[in-house]
Amino acid sequence: MTRAWIALIVAGLLEVGWATGLKESNGFTRPIPSILTVIAMGASFYLLSQAMKVLPASSAYGIWVGIGAVGTAILGMLVYGDSTSPLRWLSIVLVVLGLAGLKLTT
């Protein structure tokens, strides 16, 4: 079970990487960021599929998406100058609380 959770967390972090890579690839017009994005996508999906062998699909998928969404939002604020409004932070906190709820009920 622990290995499944580790795979899921790494898959989620790779999702942050490939979501950011999509921006950096400029619509897949820049070769290196494009290649790295596709590799991160493949690795993320593979690790998610391995985690889903053990974990319920609803929890695994929700947590994977949540890690990606929260991580990408935070990275966007830190690196790309996205809005850092209090409402945005509150929304991120709510997603994290939802992820914790999924974990606690799995």
TrEMBL record:
Keyword annotations of the record: Cell membrane, Membrane, Transmembrane, Transmembrane helix, Transport
CC annotations in GO: plasma membrane
Major localization listed first in the record, in broad terms: membrane
Pfam families in UniProt: Multi_Drug_Res
Membrane topology type: Multi-pass membrane protein
Domain of life from the UniProt record: Bacteria
Membrane spanning stretches: 29-48, 60-81, 87-105
GO MF assignments: transmembrane transporter activity
InterPro entries in alphabetical order: EmrE-like, Small_drug/metabolite_transptr, Small_multidrug_res
Gene3D superfamilies: 1.10.3730.20
Subcellular location: Cell membrane
Entry-linked PANTHER family: GUANIDINIUM EXPORTER (PTHR30561:SF0), SMR FAMILY PROTON-DEPENDENT DRUG EFFLUX TRANSPORTER SUGE (PTHR30561)
Family, similarity comment: Belongs to the drug/metabolite transporter (DMT) superfamily. Small multidrug resistance (SMR) (TC 2.A.7.1) family.
Protein's name in the database: QacE family quaternary ammonium compound efflux SMR transporter
Organism field: Lujinxingia litoralis
